[in-house]
Amino acid sequence: MTGKTILLVIGGGIAAFKTLDLIRRLRERGHRVVPVLTKAATEFVTPLSVSALAGEKVYQDLFDLNDEAEMGHIELSRAADLVVVAPATADLMAKMANGHANDLASTMLMATDKRVLIAPSMNVRMWEHAATQRNLATLTKDGILTSGPNEGDMACGEFGFGRMAEPMEILAAAESALNDGPLKGRHVLVTSGPTHEPIDPVRYIANRSSGAQGAAIAQALLAQGAKVTFVSGPADVAAPMGVDLVPVQTAAEMLDAVNAVKDVDVGIFAAAVADWRVASASDQKIKKDGNGLPVLDFAENPDILATVCASKSRPKLVIGFAAETQNVVENATAKRKRKGCDWIVANDVSPETGIMGGAENDVVLISANGAEDWPRMGKGQVAERLAMKIAEELGG
Ligand code: CTP
């Protein structure tokens, strides 16, 4: 990505020290950072350190005649490509949600015509307070993007949600917001990873999926500018930064999570969903009680892909995967018809291929036009090629 200009509003919270690192990270990526400090922010970081790291003048006062002569606050807020607020305190969020404009930061946030990304940071009780949650809902409805907050230990000694997202997470969210790729404005749902189907509270049935292909696809879609909702089972590979992550365990939870996602343009079903679950999973650990071996009764799991394909809110483009160990093209072609999806990414997951859990993939793309054989390549490359094909399909 070529360097962009980011107007960085620093609020008055203890996490402001992490914003110093964010400035470094943004500049390492070639972006220009124009800092604005609220009055409270100066209690936590000094204008001198911010200015030194940003290599820019720091803006602080609404009624600074020098600033107005050089670059007025309206112009300042529009010259940027993106506005980032980090830390976004409860007070700043409240001001933004209610349209206050009584200092330079809030006035610029009102005057800007650019996208705004906030990284909330506050005590867990303040975060959970009905007023903050109401303000968050308003801001989300207004199109304000958020990164974090994360769960963890806080400077105030409590534990919970409210910790500002890490600088690298904010950077990823900022770059995703800045992205002007061909999938900008498109919402893509990706399912990924295995599912875990409980036998009892300590045991479960799973499969060998690592979630690597699904994560790579989400990453490639983000890079093309898409908004990605990532519904993931317990995978080995971490979800890429910048997705809206919905973690699930079982197939039933995955179906509920998928059904709750609205306004999807493209659905990609890369998860290796367990076909069966234990019909009456035990609430207590099953003991060796001398009465012989336990017998597990199975029930069939819902087919998430087929359910979505048959639903009224079916996305325009639905892409399934087919994990096969024999007759890959024949089986996947039949699967495409049976499930009602547009494309199937078919792969041979026989152990000797090393694909399941490995770094590479060897796929055949099945569509109404027939089968397209792709050479064996890294899962990242498969993902990029798929993302490009999706962009072509939607653009045409
Ligand atoms: N899938 C799903 N829900 C299920 C099972 C599978 O959404 N309960 C999706 C997978 O995410 C994948 C596609 O269906 O996109 C095919 O999965 P696969 O495991 O290859 O097929 P199965 O439905 O299990 O069919 P078969 O048992 O015939 O291989």
Can you put this structure into words, describing what you see?
With 396 residues, the chain is α/β, with parallel strands linked by helices. Helices cover 35% and strands 24% of the residues. The chain has an eight-stranded mixed sheet with strand order 12-11-8-13-16-17-19-20, sandwiched between helices. A hairpin with a 2-residue loop joins strand 9 and strand 10 (203-205). Helix 1 packs across helix 9 (167-178), helix 4 packs across helix 6 and helix 5 (90-98) packs across helix 8. The chain is globular, with a radius of gyration of 24 Å. The structure holds cytidine-5'-triphosphate. Cytidine-5'-triphosphate binds at residues 191, 251, 269, 271, 273, 275, 301, 303-305, 320-323, 335.
Draw up the topology in text:
Blueprint: E1 5-10, H1 16-28, E2 32-37, H2 47-54, H3 65-70, H4 73-79, E3 82-88, H5 90-98, H6 104-111, E4 115-120, H7 124-128, H8 130-141, E5 145-146, E6 150-153, E7 159-163, H9 167-178, E8 187-192, E9 197-200, E10 203-205, H10 212-223, E11 227-232, E12 244-247, H11 251-260, E13 266-269, E14 276-278, E15 298-300, H12 304-310, E16 317-324, H13 328-339, E17 343-348, E18 360-361, E19 363-367, E20 370-373, E21 377-378, H14 379-395
Parallel strand pairs: 1-2, 1-3, 3-4, 4-5, 8-11, 8-13, 11-12, 13-16, 16-17
Antiparallel strand pairs: 6-7, 9-10, 14-15, 17-19, 18-21, 19-20
Helix pairs in contact: 1-2, 1-9, 4-6, 5-8, 10-14
This protein binds cytidine-5'-triphosphate.
